Amino acid sequence: MFRNYFLTAWRHVFKNRLFSFINIFGLAIGLMSCMLIFLFVEDELSYDDWLPEGDRIVRLHSAFLSPDRPAFRTVSAPGFWMDALSAYAAADVETAVRLVRVGQTVIKDDKVFDEQITFADGTFFDIFKLPFVAGDAQSSFAKPLDLLISEEMALKYFGRTDVIGETLTVCCAEERQMEVRVAGVLKDIPRNSHLDIDMLVYLEPSIFDFAPNILKTWTSVNTLTYFKLKEGATVEGFKTRVYEWLNRESPFLKMGADAGMTGQPSDFLRPNVMAVPDLHLYARPDAGNFGDMRPMGDIRFVYTFSAVAILILAIACINFMNLSTARATQRAREVALRKVLGASRTQVALQFLGEAVMLSLLALMLGLMGVEMVLPAYNDVLGRSLEMTITSNTGLLALAVSVAVFVGVIAGSYPALVLSRFAPARILKANKSSDAEGSGRLRSLLVVIQFAVSIGLAICTAVVYGQSMYAQKMDLGFETEGKIVMRNFRAAPIAEQRESIGRELATIPGVESVVFSSEVPTDDNENNTGFQLLSSAGDASANTEQRIINYFSVDFGFFEAYGIDPVAGRTFDRSRGNEVIEAPLEDNSIRRSASVVINEMAARNLGFSNAADAVGRVLRAGIYRAGPYDLTIVGVVPDVHFRSIRFGKQPSVYFVQPTNMDVATVTYRTSDLPALVTAIGGAWRRLAPNVPMGMSFLNDMIAAQYADDVAQGTLFAAFSGLAILVACLGLYGLAHFTAERRTKEIGIRKVMGARTRDIVRLLVWQLSKPVVVANLIAWPVAWYLMVDWLQGFEYRLGHGYIFVAAVVAGLVALIIAWGTVAGRAIRVASAKPIHALRYE
User: Are strands 199-202 and 77-78 parallel, antiparallel or unpaired?
Assistant: First the structure.
């Protein structure tokens, strides 16, 4: 019996090749898309789930709020907070650890490498139970400056993993070279973790004495601070303790009062604690993605992607069921003959169910093949290394099989339940197939749903892509072309030679200028301190309250190199005196003077409605590594987008502090860029042979800020295109079915005088109505979703763009539908009436 069912099914497939192809191919695309998306979702949801006791480990985040400027949010915390909170919340905290990540030069056998070294308190392995390849936590991480390296680093530097006792030269944690001994080898941390540690050093606090803003600070946020909670303690309970400490016992009570601030410390400082398993997907809104070890994910993207997967699969399933039920209505005579020959209703039902499940499983096989073919390109777009294997994706494969079987059962249920009950005498007497009452309206409804989803996805794709292009093409307020960024000037061997290296690089043909600064565009750093505006008369009693403002150290010629012209006053001038902030004096109570430039946003923040009014006024501040200064405002420059436009602009103060500048901007103009890069590399190797050269093109750095948005837009476009393709395949199948079913009607119309174009217009309009209705459904839904999504950008497309995208998407969908239907309609309408009237 089953052999007969199988043969009948295959005959039906090959007899109706077009319908079979559309059914199988459409469902295969849907299943492939769904599996690809859920591979990504599964990977995102797996972050840090391998970490023992991860739900008891929390990280402390910081957010600083200040009037008239965006909030500064970061994953880091001040160095003093760990001990203070551990003592205050002793009932909740079992232990804690600080991580300090520092870019260092590592030297081995006259070869130099840039590495990120993580310094950690000795309690690190009390919190993070990382596995070892060689050594153990007790003996290998027992004293200051013990070095642990990952398997990858061991192979990179030594070609093997049994390297305990080997040494590496590190430069320059204490502004000097240090020989460090490898005390153990860690297994490589899984990629699906927020941790990114290849070199771990036991923290000796004294090595950062030269930079008290790292560990010995209540305000500078330069440490990643983790707490392991006691059994029974909760994240919310510990967070409550943090705020109690902040508002009752912290030094911020006095700091706020001294700065003239009113209210509680939590009014301008908002710490948060978050469990480690939540960091990857939920920390971005809370911590701003500043300074984390690996790029954060976003739970909103996971939700969106999951919804897209479900919608595409729904379109494919609707398509499969729609065509299956439509085609099944043409098999009424087959059912009648089977029943006449003795087949029971159950046997007929099983035949239809089996055929539908067989087709859906065949679609699943093709979908799996498609996943294997597309996965490399998919990984390139996402920057992942996802794979589809039976062992690692058992759950996903089981779900895919279940979905395929379920779709097959649902698609086969109509013919199984409805056609199997037909009375043979009525069907054979009528000598025709039968379409159940209302099934045409159901199919039209399903087509409406298909195209509503497809059009909605197309609108969302256009908006996401448009916002990405808007961000990349927006005028940032400075020149971006012809800029090379060079780093590593903080390393001790060349810090003293920075100016001479800059002059040497400036002599290379094609180089127009070399200027130094503490940051360059795209650097996600913030350096904040309190600035107090003095009265014009210098009367201390008339001074305003302190304003927390971001500051940059920039070189003479920095604004000129970036094409930033002042709107009032001037920029820094090397020929003038009193421009530079010098190294600190032994007597830190002596107040000195220097010049500063501020941006327009800072001028407004300080209370100036007119930029020119700020010129000549004096700001009083304590400058890091310099001491107290009175800073005369000599100029006001426009606000520029040094960071991604997602974060907006910020009030900024610029001053010349040579000791705090470690990055160079090389402005060039040449037609032979490879020769210029070679010349710069040669000069660097000659002048700084023991320091690796960090060189990037500014345009590439700016584009990298929007890489996630571009990837998101690319994937949306790809999957939206697949959704539209599946919907159009279904529409074409229905057009073929409708034309075939109305063949006699078309013949009679032509006999009665109807022209070919009249018949084509009739068929096209009939199958276009569901697409028109789909537009009316898709537009308001897409509008609501995209308006909400755009709110996440400080600078964004206007609502008119969404309307235009909706109209274009709707028209394109309608044109595609016309093209899909018209071809079949023309072919049927052009046939001779005699053939149509003889059609059965």
Answer: unpaired
- What lies within 8 Å, CB to CB, of 22 at 6+ separation is 319, 323, 729, 730, 732, 733
Residues paired with residue 831 on neighbouring β-strands, in sequence order: none
Please write the tens of the pLDDT for every residue from 583-641. Answer: 887 777 788 999 999 999 999 988 898 999 999 999 999 888 788 999 999 999 999 88
Residue at token pair 């360059």: 520
Q: How far apart, in Å, are the Cα atoms of 88 and each of 36, 99, 239?
A: 48, 21, 12
CA distances from residue 2 to 5, 8, 328, 351, 412 in whole angstroms, order as listed: 5, 10, 20, 9, 17
- Alpha carbon distance 635, 620 (integer Å): 16
| Cβ-Cβ contacts under 8 Å for 273 (sequence gap 6 or more) | 58, 59, 60, 61, 227, 235, 238, 239, 242
Q: How much of the chain, in percent, has pLDDT values that exceed 70?
A: 80
For 99-138, give the secondary structure using H, E and C: EEEEEEEEEECCEEEEEEEEEECCCHHHHCCCCEEECCHH
DSSP count for the chain of H helices, then E strands: 29, 23
Q: Sign of dihedral through CA atoms 460, 462, 467, 468?
A: positive
Q: What is the dihedral of CA 320, 322, 326, 329, to 10 degrees?
A: 90
| CA proximity to 532, closest of 549, 518, 515 | 549
Mean pLDDT lowest among 375-384, 444-453, 756-765: 756-765
Residue 540 has pLDDT above 70, yes or no: no
541 pLDDT higher than 60? no
CA–CA distance, 376 with 384 (Å, rounded to integer): 9
Which is nearest to 534 in space by CA: 629, 630, 612?
630
Distance, CA of 816 to chain centre:
32
Mean pLDDT of 796-811: 85
Contacts of 310 (CB under 8 A, 6+ apart): 34
3-state secondary structure of 653: strand
Summarize the confidence of residues 420-436 as an average pLDDT: 52
Maximum separation of any 2 CA atoms in the chain, in Å: 112
Exposure of 156 in the CB half-sphere (CA atoms within 13 A) = 18
First-to-last CA distance in the chain? 30
Q: How many Cα neighbours within 13 Å face the side chain of 778?
A: 30
How high is the pLDDT of residue 436? 47
Other C-beta atoms closer than 10 Å to the C-beta of 787 total 13
Kindly list the distances between the CA atom of residue 57 and the CA atoms of 231, 234, 279, 323, in Å, as whole numbers in the listed order. Answer: 11, 10, 11, 53
Considering just the CA atoms, what is the radius of gyration of the chain in Å? 34
**What pLDDT is stored for residue 393 in this prediction?**
74
Give the integer Cα–Cα distance in Å for 658 and 554.
8
Comparing CA positions, the residue from 74, 117, 121 lying closest to residue 227 is 121
Q: How far apart are CA 617 and CA 598, in angstroms?
A: 11
The pLDDT value recorded for residue 266 is 87
Total-model pTM? 0.82
Residues 666 and 693: their CA atoms lie apart, in Å, by 13
- Say whether the peptide bond before residue 172 is cis (omega within 30 degrees of 0): yes
Mean pLDDT of 794-813: 84
